[in-house]
Known about the structure:
The complex is a heterodimer of chains A (144) and B (166).
Chain A: E1 7-8, E2 17-21, H1 25-37, E3 41-46, H2 49-59, E4 63-66, H3 75-85, E5 91-95, H4 100-108, E6 113-116, H5 121-132, E7 138-139
Helix pairs in contact in A: 2-3
Chain B: H1 3-21, E1 26-33, E2 42-50, E3 52-60, H2 62-73, H3 82-106, E4 111-113, E5 117-118, E6 133-140, E7 143-153, H4 157-165
Antiparallel strand pairs in B: 1-6, 2-3, 2-4, 2-5, 3-7, 6-7
Helix pairs in contact in B: 1-3, 2-3
Amino acid sequence: MEKFAPVTRSEDGQPVRYLIVDDSVFARKNLARMVETFGGQVVGEAGDGVSAISEYERVTPDIVLMDITMPQMEGIEAAEKIVRDHPSARIVMVSSVGYQENIVAALQRGARHFVQKPVKPEVLYEVIKYVMRDEGTTARGAGA
Amino acid sequence: MRMDLIQPFINSADAVLAQGLESPIAIENLSMEEEAYRRKGIAAEVCLMGEIEGRIIFDVDLGAAVQLASRLAGVEVSETNEELVREAVCELANQIIGNAITTLNDQGFHFHVRPPTLHTSEQGSKSSEDTEALVMVFNTASGNIFMNVALRHHCPGALERAAVAG
């Protein structure tokens, strides 16, 4: 996999902490592998929207990567509930279902960005840098 | 069955499989099927509801599924790691069908998709006159992949909207 300059939190230089939400174990593993190449740390995983909300409360991640089509509660509804309680939550929707109506609905309910599956690491990397930039996140060194 | 409903699935499978396998793929065969679906390997099923209704079965020979899982996971996946192999097939189905649905929705067809589920029975339901299935066989370096698409268009108004949208 391509080498990326680590993305860290500028205030303490610590790795960006991720919550990965997807009903597919396989997709979660893939995303975890990607964010680790960005220097990130996976602090929690969830397989549906309901678990995502409780995991968010438990681990308070810097960023959430959230699938849309999931059992029990879909990702857009979960994102809305998380942002309602935590307005500064950074949620990036990651889904293969990327039609305009869906993207607009996700953004209107508080998601910060959208990445379509199959995820290209270089695209996700740029989105993470963009979404975290108001936090003063830095990407150290060359590469990417 | 309308080809304008099917073409996005062909394009999506072509793009997602080529990216996932990092090699070109070819459609080896394309046929209409009215008989009940017979599973060939590890299969995932996705159901659609709305203006377009029906189901799509994405079926991969075991050998091809193991190779696909290994390529997608970036590590060697053993045939005995059934859960990961099944997950890989479901995730591929999710990506291929999701990308096709994106195209169809942006063309004006409105419908909803359920998460993929493993298609475990040996035989699926028989197609009816208006949900005749189209079976596509994709030939990859890792083996054959079958996609069985049985869709029914529900709302005539959507076609006019799609035509206007271009």
